[in-house]
Amino acid sequence: MKKLNWCIIGTGAIANELAESLLRVNGEIYGAYNRTYEKALLFSKKYNIKKTYQSIEDVMNDTLVDIVYISTPHNAHYELIKKSLENNKHVLCEKAITVNSQQLREVMELANEKNLKLMEAMTIYNMPIYKVLKDKIDQGIIGKVKMIQVNFGSCKDYDVTNRFFSKDLAGGALLDIGVYATAFARYFMSKQPHKILTTHDEFETGVDEQSGIILQNTSGELSVISLTMRAKQPKRGIISGELGYIDVNDYPRATQATIVYTKDGSKEIIDVGNTTLALDYEVIHMEKSIIENDQTSLLYTHDVMDILTKVRHQWGIIYPFENKE
Ligand SMILES: NC(=O)c1ccc[n+]([C@@H]2O[C@H](COP(=O)([O-])OP(=O)(O)OC[C@H]3O[C@@H](n4cnc5c(N)ncnc54)[C@H](OP(=O)(O)O)[C@@H]3O)[C@@H](O)[C@H]2O)c1
Fold it and tell me: pTM for this one?
């Protein structure tokens, strides 16, 4: 089978990890582009990449590029996804895939029209442990799911020029770390929440600093999410059912979970996957989705973006480049 040619767009921090994964999984990387050309050149040298593009048009005009991986800040995802799909390239885009659900709907439609694969590089949908846990929950080992608690707290040094804090770059805790917590919650809820309650604080730059989010669906399941960018929290998700609970530590790149059975307090440890291969799973999943024409790659991404958009609208935070939905 023909090898798929990847081009990396945006050669910052996470692109380095993806490049290492691509070399492990694919053996080589075809192309790289960065808006600062000198940085792209250094990147290409480091990973022995065949082609370094001077402009985004050069990437788009290269018919040998099969897949682009987009790892720019959130505000630039939508335009780059659109451009790539229009130019017949499959897209793996970093989280958060777009800044709102209107943008996501548009690019999903475009991908469908063009019969191209669009996927979000979201660890929760790719690390093997989550699928194993979901299968166990579906088999009924913890009974009916009732309550999910999930948090994400990282303490970032305040720097108004950093994408984390910039409204122009679609910063804030929700799109940066909240996307993981919401993906965790939605993945283990049996259906999309119909009710969302939330409250938040803002940084001086006008993006969200911390928040509490409660999701409720019509199946009697609640998720309670806590996020902060000014205090460290253990990255922990707990899925509680009528017969027991599952404790997942060090998510999103988790490899271990403990199941505790309510009746006798007994415990079972589940050990699956490898943290250092987190992005390898994404690369493998992307290639497999293309080869098998899998239609499910955006199932949860769609629901999560819908939740994030509704939450942000309740807060009244609108990015400067955004249309009101
Ligand atoms: N999956 C994960 O585990 C993970 C982890 C971290 C981040 N991420 C996601 O990956 C993305 C990038 O994060 P990062 O931490 O790698 O960021 P980063 O280190 O700041 O790198 C951003 C890259 O995008 C380029 N860029 C900046 N603004 C741009 C624009 N308007 N148009 C085109 N290119 C632009 C930068 O180019 P210059 O060199 O010219 O500045 C730089 O190469 C974000 O969406 C983030 O949420 C994912």
Answer: 0.96
